[in-house]
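In practice, a research group might receive sequence data for several interacting partners and want a quick structural hypothesis before committing to experiments. The following worked case mirrors that situation: the sequences arrive first, and a predicted assembly follows.
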Amino acid sequence: MSTNREKESPAFRGGAAFLLSQLGAHVAQQFADRVAELDLTPAQAGLLRMLVQAPGRSQRELAEMLGMPPSRFVPFADGMQERGLIERRRNPDDRRVYSLTLTDKGMELLARLGTVAKAHEEQVCQALAPDEHQQLIGLLRRIADQQQLTPGVHGGYRRLRSG
Amino acid sequence: MSTNREKESPAFRGGAAFLLSQLGAHVAQQFADRVAELDLTPAQAGLLRMLVQAPGRSQRELAEMLGMPPSRFVPFADGMQERGLIERRRNPDDRRVYSLTLTDKGMELLARLGTVAKAHEEQVCQALAPDEHQQLIGLLRRIADQQQLTPGVHGGYRRLRSG
DNA sequence: GATAATGATTACAGATCTGAACGATTGTCA
DNA sequence: TGACAATCGTTCAGATCTGTAATCATTATC
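A structural hypothesis for the assembly, expressed as tokens:
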């Protein structure tokens, strides 16, 4: 039952899981190329998006969402602060935590990021008719929900863990 | 035109490009966890698949397909050879190149890998009815073709390049 | 008011990546 | 034939990246 020529041929192209992984890596790379023109990495772009969705989060929460250890988040946020994109503000209620927010310059860049993301979306889905495009989004959201992925948060800014 | 509450809300969950990237990372991580039980990394699993699809390729070709520099491919192949999964054979016509092939042990492991991949596919697409599952595969293949991705080859075993 | 817990940060050691070089072999061309 | 360039596999050193654990300030517990 392992040599059916008909059953095995789809395996050469992979099922949905393989295609998602393959396309995901491809799409992520293209996005990285695009945002590089704004001097941003995908993780930096992700932070901008996260800060506008829910401002005032602590660094630990943000690091958790981005899938990076807090120790790595510090120099990561440093760079964005030095560029004037984000602001660290001490929380008056708990002076241990920093509340991170976007600066005006950060919001400006986020707007340009939106333009880039829109162009990227269209370039990726060129092959699809508008109704198919919506169909795909629907299917992907159903999977994302069932897999309990946080909407709008991309935890993939880490290397694949083997354990 | 940038503050339509209706138009902006889907952006919070992301379009198809974001979902593909998010789900791709998630699915790739789950696959990594699964194949780890076979003492394999995703890249190693990919090499096994590639060798059965088209045996006798040179290391340089394989490295190219996997998206890693030849210098990194060498220790990568070393490990698999030491485990007796692949074989390096000098090409009689061109003694510079090695032709890599699967050993019996490698093919055996590849069979177990197929079982793992099948279970993974079902787990990923739990949320979808059988016809939706096929629909999704169809849409993803159309995109993959249009984006000129090599069928069955996952070039994402590299870090995201910023340039 | 002493002790434990938490957030941010730093220090450090280990893994990992990259690009340039090297030896061996083959193609090219006078 | 013989010099020269190109290719394949490989190695190596420098740079980069990554996670763990220790440190400091602040807050919760009791």
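Before designing any experiment, note the following. Residues 42-159 of chain A form a domain with the Arc Repressor Mutant, subunit A fold (CATH 1.10.10.10). Chain A touches chain B through 64 residues (CB under 8 Å).
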